[in-house]
Amino acid sequence: MLKYFNASQKNYLKKLEIILERRKLIQKKQTIKIKKILSDVQKNGDKALLKYEKKFLNIELKSKKIKFSNKDISKILKAVDKQLKKSIDLAFVRIKKFHSQQKFSSFKYKDKFKNELSYRYSPIDRVGVYVPGGTASYPSTVLMNCIPAIVAGVKNIYLTTPAYGSRVNPAIIYAAKKCGVKEIYKTGGAQSIAALSYGTKTFKKVDKIVGPGNAFVAAAKKEVFGDVGIDMVAGPSEVSIIADKFSNPSWIASDLIAQAEHDVFAQSILITNSKELIYSVNLKIKDQLKILPKKKIALSSIKNFGLAIFVKNKTQMLDVVNTIAPEHLEINIKNFKSLLPKIKNAGSIFLGKFSPEAMGDYIAGPNHVLPTSGAAKFSSGLSVNDFLKRQSLIKITKSGIERLGPSVINLAKHENLEGHAYSVKIRLKGDN
Fold first, then answer.
1. Distances from the Cα of 138 to the Cαs of 151, 169, 238, in angstroms?
2. What is the pLDDT of residues 132-191, one digit of tens each?
3. How many whole angstroms separate alpha carbon 7 and alpha carbon 377?
4. Which position among 99, 328, 357, 368 bears the catalytic label?
5. What angle do the packed helices 398-414 and 418-429 form, to 10 degrees?
6. Is pTM beyond 0.85 here?
7. 327, 330, 357, 368: which one is catalytic?
């Protein structure tokens, strides 16, 4: 089951980094050069989009309609289970409430020369949301990506989800309408990222693209960055769990499996000072996998990337966590408060035994779009701030330029930018 790793060995952090890097390299090998697809869609629009849908789905083109009509949407919404609607509604309220606390305030002040300096926030105009389809078809993804945009004040949200060659998950459509999405498209893959980036006859061109996807989608987002904004280049999901001899091995096993069932490249890591717990968790994983519908995916993930890291003390435990910089971190021990101040790198942290990562995926409130593959060392999860532009406003007075201008001239000359210096000097002279 979980591969054993002893943190007491020499140079253990470097060895751990090598193990973690192997998964990244495998992921990179799954990507392809998608520049041709992006260029083709940019040039040929819907025609190219349909060509790639046909090619990658291996289907015959039955229709050229790649957008859900209002009639389509009304019909699909009737198929959503009432209890599921209630769960989505509850999740919507909780997620929106949490993100509403993140709003930023513009500010303005005057310095002693009466110069006016201010900072203001304004929402992005158009946002495109990519929602995976097939085996990874999640209405929760719709909520987590759309709600912070709504709170930020984004007026135009467009969504695409792979549904051209198959039935769409009705709950995705329900969640999209709940979030006020303007248009819903039926395509997926790198070709849809291109369509959102450059626009087609059907697709609206957006200013920023958010949402998870497979290796092809991630690679496409990376390529279009600069033409449009993106949230992040995310890899497969991951969890690290800190536990000790008092932790419930059945609960720990279930949380590791919950992450593993996402993807064969997902990574589940147990960090503990108890060898007995490692043994017990491995037994529980075997038992629980027997009844899991996605047994093959979870088993492959655990077998290839699962780790049980034995640590002797708190210092090793913290060093391991900060080296991994996990997307999700569960601290399943009683004295989690003693560890928390020294945990620097983690996307989202779950405290105590009643806080499984699954709660954060759906209904706790904080966003589940988080940095993966060690990116928590330098980035954060999706927030309202990702949908806001920040602008500085500068109004210099006559007194201000007279008092501050000479220093600007000195600095500009030092950097050999005489034009900069002159643009200030000419004002100090009073030339018209």
1. 21, 8, 17
2. 986 567 899 999 999 999 999 999 999 999 987 678 899 999 999 999 999 999 999 999
3. 21
4. 328
5. 150
6. yes
7. 327
